[in-house]
Amino acid sequence: MPVTIATLGFPRIGPRRELKFALERYWSGKSSAETLEDEARALRAGAWSRQRSLGVDHVPSNDFSLYDHVLDMSAVLGAVPQAYRAVGTPLETYFAMARGRGAVIEACAGHSHAHGGDLPAQEMTKWFDTNYHYVVPRLSPGQTFELTSTKPVDAFLEAKALGVTTRPVLVGPVSYLKLGKATQDGLDPLSLLDGVLPVYAELLRRLAAAGAESVQLDEPCLVLDLTNVERAALRRAYGVLADAAPGLKIMLTTYFGGLGPNLSTAVTLPVSGLHLDLVRAPGQLADALAQAPADLTLSLGVVDGRNIWRANLSNLLQRLEPAAAERRGLILAPSCSLLHTPLDLAQESALDPDVRGWLAFAAQKVEELDVLRRGLNEGRSAVRAELEASDAAVASRRSSPKIHDPAVQARVHAVTPRMARREGDFSERRAAQAARLNLPAYPTTTIGSFPQTQGVRKARAAHDKRALSDADYDAFLRAETLDAVRWQEEIGLDVLVHGEFERNDMVQYFGERLSGFAFTQNAWVQSYGSRCVRPPIIFGDISRPAPMTVGWWAYAQSLTDLPMKGMLTGPVTILQWSFVRDDISRSQTCRQIALALRDEVVDLEAAGAKIIQVDEAALREGLPLQRADWPVYLGWAIGCFRLAVSGVRDETQIHTHMCYSDFNDIIEAIAAMDADVISIETARSQMELLEAFSGGGYPNEIGPGVYDIHAPRTPTVEEMVELLRKAGERLAPDQLWVNPDCGLKTRKWEEVRPALVNMVTAARRLREPAA
Questions:
Q1: Which listed residue (58, 340, 657, 710) is catalytic?
Q2: Is 340 a catalytic residue?
Q3: pLDDT, tens digit, for every residue of 621-676?
Q4: What is the pTM assigned to this prediction?
Q5: Domains in the chain: how many in total?
């Protein structure tokens, strides 16, 4: 049997973010559900056609989603909380779970539909250690499941009608349940496994009846630290599923790490194939070859589905040749779904030619797999030219003077432990800061950004195209900043922000002002729903040639007597939300970023900033998936944050912000950051995420979010007061700040204004003696 190639999933958003714009037209009422479905159908057809033209043998289907593939699985399984079931059509229900609804459903094709109540969005969190967000399934005791959507079957038939026989992709039952959240304390989501398996079994039977020959079941939970009970759940689940449709081959897919002690379980499950991530865990190939039964097809994830560097094809071919000789029928694939990579390097015409020559996006990664396939099937001579090109790119990158900066490397080597400690402890700093800032109880602020309106985006685009002069663009931004400052004063916020109208993105803005970064035109990846990001590329050593934010902060502070926060993105978040170089350790790169930010923090303080916020939204996201690896990561990640912020005096207040995360298991590390104030997203969880900070274990100040900015609804004053009272049950009132869950860049002013007015009113109500 020859070696074949597969993709585990393909970018959904389209070459020019067509999905984003189709969704936003539908949500705004400018297009109908039928139009949205037509546009989605065209994107799916384009993805299938492209993969087939690239020579993919195992093309996936059902990897496309209008919002999130885990939410799709909830819809398929009928795992829809009761409150959402009366919303309207299945599509309206789906988006209500994803985005929430106000008292009236958003206009669709010019029509508004009455709704019986106000619905918040379901909780959202990070997909393992990526920057992709999934909608968390809500699981209740005695919950029943039923096949309420045939989306996977429909997608298979849709591709089949176009002449493409695909391999449908499903989130596996054990991972689905482990990704869920129990609505009642003490409920183990895996106790619902026997209820969910019949639905999976019925789905597999329908796929087989539709003509599917194989199905991909994703069980990334296999790279986690599993208990014996969880391993037993996997054996029970796949025993049932193997019997459901005996002629249907199951490819059990794992990614984001090695299986470790779970490998012995995986290779004994009654499945036809097993996919291994050999990018994150190359050493597991030998163990898999030794343990896997002869009839188990191995799918080897040999090109990086999470990063954008060209593979070293000669080295890979050398590693794979013994495996191909030993085991027939190998499948070569990316390490994981290509959802996490941009679509096509061919769309990038402005990149430095050297840097461009070192890169491979999704389409190029499939081409690399094709070279490896032909090399294994036909011999090295068949791909000699491709191997020579790969060797030349590897050599060019290794020796390029654009990558290595001796001054940066020397500065990193000169870092001492003392540089990562503040002068005084928190109690001393708190007293100095209180005297200097003189803030009321429950001080109010926002996370940093204000809406990036169409006018802001148009002005930026015109400036980028040189249609708007530097002077005119600067005047425009100053006017926007002035309006934002005056409005914040008017509604009574206590600590202001300048709005960040000059910033295109919280990482890209800084990367453009640091050495060692490259930027793309169309290298977009999906973060969630219609939210797409264009990660910078870290290709070399990093330093700060000049101040990055001081000028805009100084201008904004000159407009008001109230404290104006300096706003920076933290070193770990810049690292996590960039495509990171793979020729040195991530910790080394992070220290370089931290030193560059340290210079900025010191300069902001020297300019007069009393409060400086350094956001580490991605700290939890970067946590390794296996607990044994946590101490090393947390050691350097926390150390880099402290290195960035510890050059200031005690009276300068350091804030940080973190996005959707479960903090319980890393609370000691968060405390070790020693930020004076941390703001976190807690509105969707109804303050449950504060449990980690309660009980007297966290002494510093906290701003639990009271306004879910990811949902298109305005929370009431009463709702915010109730959230703050819940926070007060867990923390001392003098620890609490009042703020939204996250930055407001993606919202509209007509949403933001009433929400922030309500937030200020809620804080003032709590300051009243009766409160």
A1: 710
A2: no
A3: 899 999 999 999 999 999 999 999 999 999 999 999 987 556 778 888 888 999 99
A4: 0.90
A5: 2
